[in-house]
Structures are given as C-alpha cells and as structure tokens.
Design goal:
Strand content: 5-15%
Structural class: mainly alpha
Order of helices and strands: HHHHHHHHHHHHHHHHHHHEHEHEHEEH
Oligomer: single chain
Length: 482
C-alpha cells in the first residue's frame, strides 16, 4: 500500500480530531444523540446506524463533542484512503494515487462531513467503499468481493436509504455499457440478497409506520430543507464539493471512463453518474446526493492528471497542481472547520450555512431557561424542530429544565406532553401550531450574543397557558416531517 496515501489519510483524520471540539454541536448531532436514547430499527427520516454511533460515543464519554465526532474523522480518513486505492485499481501509478488522495483530502465535502457526526459522513464512505469493491471485483476477477459489497451496501442502507440509488445507478450503468455478465453473476445476486436482507428491518419499520420517509423526501424535494437547492444546481454544485480549482480532476475522470479503452470495463461508473444526475434533478434531490461518486471520478482522473504533469514544463505544471491543492485545502478548511472566531463567521456561513448551525446552542438553552415560569411551576417545553428540542435535552438539565417535546420527525414519535393544563414554553412555533395553544405571550427572543445569523437567531420564545383541549387531541396538528 502507498505509504504517502496512508499518511495523507491519517493526517486528515488527525486534523479533524484536533478541531472536533470547536464551536459546538450541529443541530443534527443534537438530534442523533437524542435518537440514540430511543434506539429503534428506523426513524421517520433515517436508519438506526448514526444514532447507534451517537449512543456508543455518548456511553464512552457523555457530553464530549470531540469523542462524539471521532467516528466521523475516521470515516473521512478512510474515504481518502479508498480514493487512493480506487486510483490504483483504475491504472494509476504511485503518484496518481497520491494525487487522488490529496485532492480528496482537501475537498470541502470531506472536511465538513468529517467534522460533524452526520449520516452524510458514513454515506460518503459507503458509496466510496462499494464503488472500490465493484471496481476491484470487475478488474481483479475476485467475485467474492461482491459479497463484501452487499454487506457494506446493506449496512449503509441502515444509515439512510440513499445508497439504494447507488445500487440503481450501478445497475443502470452495467445495463447500458456492461460488463453485462454481471447481471447473471451468482455472487452479484448473492451480494444483492445480503443487502436487501440487512435492509429488511428498516423496510418493516417504515411500512408499519405509514412510510414517513416518503413524506420527508417530498418535503426535501419541495425545498423544505435548509440545504435544498434548485434542480439545475445539482451538476454545477459538484465543482464546489471538491473545489473549483480541482474540478478538472474529477471531470477528467468522467471523460476518461467514457473514452479510455484501458478502463472500458468500468465505464458503468460514468453512466451511473449520468443516470443519477438525471434522477436527482428530476426528483428534487439535494446536490450532495450525487457526491458519493466523486471519489471514484477523482480516482479515475488522477492518472490523466499524472500524465499531464509530464507534458510541457514539468516543474511549472507540478507547481500549478500543488498550488491548486494547497489553495483548495485552505479554502476548504476555513469553510468547513471552526478556524475563525465565532464573531467573524458571516462570510463563511454564507458559503456553508451548516457551520452556523454549530453556534449558539448553549445561549439558546439559557434564553429558554430565563423565559421558563418560576420554579415550582410544572411547565412543558415544545419546540418547532428537532435541533431546538435536542439543545434543551442536552443543556436543559443543568439549567433546571425538563426534557423537550417536538412534533418534528422522530421527536413526534417519542410522545406528546402528558395531558393536563400546565403552562407551555413554545419555541419557534408558527401561527398554525400556536393556534393549538391558549393565550400566548412573547417572553424572549433567541440571541446567540455573537450576531451570527443562523436559523435560530431571533426565534420567539412564548409562554402559553396550555393546550386547547388535551395534548393527545392537539398533538397531531403539531406533527410535521421534513
């Protein structure tokens, strides 16, 4: 194995661990920690894998943000390593493998998903691992690797259902360009059966709960997610995920897979990318849904970039590549990692709004605590979204607050407040949901104290007399998916 590639992968993981404690929890991390306390085979919007990781890390070191994020840092390093191995399988020499690993290591996509605990972190790793196993099986002739690919795909589906699109894309690519012998290969069929068998618990849970994942997907397709983008941005957005200066590397890989006879047997990867680009544009998917194939394209593009270095002024071209990697790394680190003081993050948040969602949660909980009725009053807390509820559950006990309720996604399945007429502290509820409560007054507004313009800044905290009727009656009106 290429030691430089291993060193690059290890350096990425180490860097991410060093900065893992910066700023604070992302709203999704607060949600995963809460979901880890309610382990199940599935949730309205995800599988059990990431909540299980959150539970395990919380058992090791409760309330440690750094420990919570270690699996993500390791996953990012593994993605870098596998990209180098993909370059090798696709005919790249030692330097091409280093190029592939270096380009992946500085990608904003890898750095940010490796910085926080996220379903996307393990999704990216899974797509990379499955494509590497597929390429290795096709080019090396070891059909047993399809069984391993089935296991990886099945576990990935228990993280989120998106890898099912990878399987569809690879199948479409094989049908279009071959090698079609794979369609009747018993190992491929057995690997597919393994993946489906591992996915069955998620399917059974979703079926028994009315398929809420479909409603979540519809909400995303209609633009109901903070990271939703117009359909036409999906392909251009790929240039930003690796970095504009390094986009020629994966574009060269896409072109090479279509044109180079040396990698003719892996042309299905290029067709998979095209098919999924069309599918995600047509279905309203998020731009990062397509990103799982970028490591394969970078791996394919590393060889032609390596050959390009030998043409013309070699030292100049090497300097240009090294400069592009260095600049991309600097930009990626600033955009993805907590490098700047929190007060100076406005420009970064404009490029990466998710970074803003890691700032201000302790101040959020303190604001709710100040609005909470006097001690001795048994009020309930209801929030608009799972991030707000997760923040109350994380920081609230130290402030004397009860655990929060929310109708958002899985929180809605974990129960409504107990029936009664206790006062309600309502955080961020829109007018339609506030109509289910009696006599509300604004008690506070969320202010992170840093002027950071994230989703919670300025949110109203209201104190209401109680629900209109019983909680079991009004709770369905507060439930929402997205």
């Amino acid at each position: 194995m290429n030691r430089i590639v291993v060193s690059i992968a290890a350096a990425v993981s180490a860097l991410l661990v060093v900065f893992a404690g910066g700023y604070g929890y992302h709203r999704d991390e607060l949600y995963f920690v809460a979901a880890g306390r309610h382990l199940d085979w599935a949730y309205a919007d995800q599988g059990p894998f990431t909540p299980l990781i959150a539970r395990a890390m919380s058992e090791i070191a409760p309330d440690s943000l750094t420990v919570l994020r270690i699996p993500s840092a390791l996953a990012a390093g593994a993605t870098v390593l596998l990209t180098g191995l993909l370059a090798r399988e696709l005919g790249g020499g030692r330097r091409a493998q280093v190029i592939a690993a270096a380009c992946t290591a500085v990608a904003g996509l890898v750095l940010f998903t490796g910085h926080i605990l996220s379903t996307s972190t393990f999704d990216l790793l899974a797509w990379t691992a499955v494509t590497w196993l597929a390429v290795r099986a096709v080019r090396g002739g070891d059909d047993r690797l399809w069984l391993a690919a089935g296991v990886v795909l099945g576990v990935a589906l228990l993280n989120k259902p998106l890898p099912a699109f990878l399987a569809f894309g690879l199948l479409a690519g094989v049908v279009i360009s071959g090698p079609r012998r794979l369609l009747r290969n018993p190992y491929v069929l057995a690997g597919s059966a393994i993946a489906v068998a591992l996915f069955v618990p998620w399917i059974v849970w979703q079926a028994s709960h009315g398929w809420p994942q479909i409603d979540v997907s519809r909400s995303i397709a209609s633009g109901g997610s903070a990271s939703s983008q117009p359909w036409w941005t999906i392909v251009p957005f790929q240039a930003l995920l690796v970095g504009p200066l390094l986009a020629p590397v994966w574009i060269a890989g896409l072109v090479r897979l279509f044109r180079d006879p040396i990698v003719r047997d892996c042309r299905f990867l290029a067709w998979a990318w095209v098919v999924l680009a069309v599918v995600f544009m047509a279905s309203g998917g998020k731009p990062y849904y397509l990103a799982g194939l970028l490591p394969a394209l970078v791996g394919a593009g590393a060889a032609p970039v390596d050959r390009w270095l030998e043409r013309g002024e070699r030292s100049v071209r090497i300097g240009l590549l090294v400069g592009a990697v260095a600049v991309s790394g600097a930009i990626g680190a600033v955009v993805a990692l907590p490098l700047l003081p929190e007060l100076d993050t406005d420009a970064v948040i404009a490029l990466n709004p998710d970074l803003g969602e890691t700032i201000g949660w302790p101040a959020f909980a303190h604001t709710v605590a100040r609005a909470y009725p006097p001690r001795g009053t048994r009020a309930v807390i209801v929030t608009r979204n799972y991030g707000e509820a997760g923040a109350i559950d994380r920081y609230g006990p130290g402030l004397g607050l009860p655990h929060a309720h929310s109708g958002h996604n899985a929180y809605g399945d974990w129960g409504s407040p107990p029936n009664g007429s206790a006062p309600v502290v309502a955080v961020g509820l829109p007018p339609r949901e506030l109509a289910q409560l009696r006599t509300c007054r604004v008690a506070a507004r969320i202010d992170n104290g840093l002027g950071v313009d994230n989703d919670e800044q300025g949110t109203r905290v209201l104190v209401c007399r109680g629900p209109v009727g019983s909680w079991s009656h009004v709770w369905p009106a507060l439930r929402h998916l997205g």
